[in-house]
Amino acid sequence: MKAAPFEYSRPADLDEACALLAKDDAARVIAGGQTLVPMMAMRLARPTRLIDINRIAALAYIRAEGDSVTIGATTRQCVAERDATIAKSVPLLARAIPNIGHAATRARGTVGGSLANADPAAELPLCAVTLDAVLQYRADGATEEIPAREFYIGPMITALPAGAILSAVRFPVWRGKVGVGFHEINARSSDFAFVSAAAQIELGEDGTCRRIAIGIGAATDFPMRLDSAEAQLTGGSLDDKAVRAAVREALADIDPLSDLHASADYRRRVAVDLAARAVNDARVMALGIAQGQ
Amino acid sequence: MRIELDINGAKREVEVEPRTTLLDCLRDNLALTGAHAGCEHGVCGACTVLFDGVAVRSCLMFAVQAQGSKIVTIEGVTPGPGELSPVQDAFCETHGMQCGYCTPAMILTAHALLADNPDPTREEIVEAISGNICRCTGYAQIVEAIALAAERLRGTNRPSEL
Amino acid sequence: MSAPGNHRFVSTDRRVREDRRFVVGKGRFVADIGLPNTKHVALVTCPYPAARIVSIDTSAALAMPGVLYVLDGEELAGATLPLMTGLDTPNVPRRPLAFEVARYAGEWVAAVVADTRALAEDAAEKVKVQYQKLAFVLDAEQALAPGGVLVHEAHGSNVLLDKTFTWGEVDKDFAASPRKLKLRVKWGRSSTVPIETFGVVASWDPWRDILDVYASIQMPKYPEQIAMGLKLPASSVRVHYDVDVGGSYGVKRGIKHSVLVGYLTRRLGFPVRLIEDRLENMRGGDAHGPERLFDVEVAYDDQGIVKSMKMRALENVGAYAGRSPFQLGKPIGAIVGPYKIESVQYRAIAVVTNKTTQDAVRGFGQAPTNVAIERMMDEVANALGLDPIEVRRRNMIRHEEFPYLIPSGTTYDSGDYHAVIDKVLAHTSYEELKAERDRLQAEGKLAGIGIAACLEPSGGNASFEPLLNPKNPTTTWMDSCRISVDLSGAITATMHTTSAGQGHETLLATVIAEVLERDPDGIRVVRADSLNSLPSNSPVGSRMAIMLGGAAFHAANKLKDKLTTIAAHDLGIPLERATYRDGDVFDNDTPERRRSWADLVAIAHRNFHRMPPGLEPGLAVSHVYQVPTGGKLPTADGRVQMYPCFSFEFHMILVAIDPALGRPEIVKYRIGHDCGVVINPKIVRGMTMGGIAHGIGAALLEEFAYDGEGQLMAQSFMDYLLPSSHEVPAVEIIHHCTPSPNTVLGQKGSGESGYLGAPAAIANAINDAIRPLGVSVNTLPIRISALGDMIAAAQDSKGQR
Lengths: 293, 162, 801
Hints:
The complex is a heterotrimer of chains A (293), B (162) and C (801). Chain B is of the alpha+beta class and 162 residues long. Chain B is 35% helix and 14% strand.
């Protein structure tokens, strides 16, 4: 399983990387390589040139800026996993990242790489969609932005234009009595999830739900937000029955994937259960904060 | 391409194609055959090396990408001819292997774990090796080896980055 | 863990000497071997499940840089003989490269030889093969039914084997029994899938007429089969046994790879190397395992005593025969499990389909058979409302009834199954386990206790060969050991096969040290190659503790006798007065009169004038050991002694299932294990733990699944799921020792332990957990999604969701 031959470039900065990418539409950017290299080993991906952005220092950072946290695209997943700013301000990521692959793949895999790869079962795209993150990319010497919900448009398909390179992702920070939950089901821990659920809530003073975001991953071509469920549950007490009913209704029309690992029925049904667990975890966490834990 | 790699503390120059993985470079160009190919797609972990102190899959990196980082292989944690490190010796004490194919990878993963966490719980050891597949042992004696190594290293007065 | 006898080294907690080279990365695996000027092979594979090969255009491939040759099936077929198969099926030939017709997706069609593996792969993509797609069949029952697609036209059917054995008065016993039960059990296609793929390097020396072969091999009669394929005498094939094998557990037979590279090196004049990559291995390495459908029926009474059993086992072999059909025969040697079932009818059917070929998998068919038997025993208990352990106890052979002859003609050597169960239950209270199960259920989980009681036939007497193919009267199953004491007094022992992590060097040194009363760490162990080898049949059938141990024991005793004889002669005393102790020999009447080890070495090597007349000089002895209780052909009605020894394992596990997710979790795992006298406790424990992990994989995770188009869906480790450390719970092993009367030290085999019973125990536990819902599952692997869907449907129908 040796990759097909390619040229290798290691540009000093992002604009040089973009220029290389623009010159050859069969060239590809490599960051962590944890997904790209296996594809190349199986000759399913055959780039003519690899543009290595791993050592562009300016792309690896975690910055709290006002009401958001911005993560540079080549930030290693393991760095994000242990980061105090993320733990405090974007706890959903802290909850989700340990589920990504194994420690050895998180050591190399990047936040941007996973976001750009857009695997339907991947954790970071699910978090991005759930929290309405904003993806930043560089193209033709300019930085553009696109909301996560517009970024993911198909299985492994994003709205990233040809020749563009993802440069950062900006996650909004929720204030107040915030709680998060993340659940996934797989055959072995760290496998690709059959279905996953992410939830973030903010509780009001009276303990009811002031704000809620629920995302489901791995059941459809790209992560989905449960807008109708969120609308139904806002202002309510988030009791389990109500949550399940709202989620079930939101998922009624989806056509989940059926494959070797899980049936469509399983994905649709278990999505409800995982979402309920995620919302409950979020509620418990938020109450804990409310109680000053 | 002619590249220079930092392997086990020494600078080594090799001539490789860009598509040569770090694993193949170590094995074929540098005669460091302790890292093994088990799947070449990043699942089994038999190719594990330490990359700037962190356990990574050497089959998922091209050798050209490794320039500028410190690579440590199983040969690099072996103290000297005929000698065993405390981790290696612990693996012998508990028989934390059978065929030996996943063993260098397990040992390097153990080294990385213990450098970061000198007193791991059983769960932490299980988690740390969960990216390394062993088909022979069922993991029990491997987990015991790492726990034993941790205990012995805590009793020494030298740092555990060996 | 202690042996009943007084052993100095056997059964003591000694390190495994092989570990030293592995922990420093100095194992010598086949990919580590670098012969100068070696060239590399990559395969061109057929993309269809069945296709006629119309043409192969190699021109573009040959024009690529570094490419030296492209071999096709026609050239290879013209120059070599088809690979040996065990059954009498001459119209089902098997060749390394498909000849005229390719019969499974992934079958090797051409081989590219190039300067590097990468260049060979580049060129393999450029070989243009024209195929004419043919009809194909994937399902065993469809393949069995007459009038369907034939995988091998010339064979006339898809049936390689269809043999029914009737041992005892089956019809009478069924008629006389008040109760009957039927069950269908499916064992999904899985295999051992070692982390190291199969690899082989071959180099032909035309001036010596020797083919040197280095391979990751675990195969009896490997040099002979290579020689046969290449039309060479076996004395022209030198297989080097000092290659470390990175796991095999049965499957590394690699004969097609070896004939392929053997031909190429002879044809091309340089060493040729084929190391399967993982994709080649999974699809075309021919290392799949059993895919078996059981229909079992038992006749039993109100006490739960099973009197008679009918079993039909239908095996989906894949496109060619390999060793697979014999995996239907080996279980005959333990067909009633540990029970006193009086009569058995067994129908063994092997059919070819357009799937990858199988090879021998750990247990050689026993693990799937145990699932069928143990699921049936649980269903008997359930039908009667009896406790499953109690039903086992009532049916089990009692300690005092050994040696015990089973209906199919094998005598079980020894066992105390009831004592093992007692020990396990003394260690872990059954009542507490049940209480824990109830607690989990009260918390909203599904929870079940699963037990399995099975035998590990060990010793490897492959009398299933003449049983299933009367044209093959093989009754010799031997192994050997040679011991030499050199002029310096150092002991060197030689073994004559490869090892894949079983610790054979340690085993040999321990047994020899025990007999010679010398330090085992001072005993050198080396491996021969096939030209300076004594006979061996390689580590299959859980045989090496028995066979290598037996050969070593006898050789060491020969050496001890020789030393004693030399000493007696030199001391001028009758032999009966010469006493051997720790390598020295003294006069029992006057112990000060003695000869030391060094004295005796000197006499043997240098002082012929002091040697007893008629004794050969030097201290080199060997022993070739036939399998105990072996050597007989089957009777006309298909009865034969199969393996000589029977280890026993009793699994007791607690499984919890989250009903919403369908994911089973093994909460507690206990195994009682009796393999007779244990030679090295660390090795045996590792085997059992590894076997259980492997069994968890087979029960819950692993499958070589195919889609409707004949494509393997699990082509890499992304879809073929091997258990990681997270999937294997903590296991407690409870030991017992019932020595074998048939072996030199009372040892039995343990190489398959854990794997033989874990899938059955897991299947039983899950069934116990879901039984209250009125559903059962008898198809392995039991996938999360299938279990979840089944639970949801059952809860829906009961209005529980």
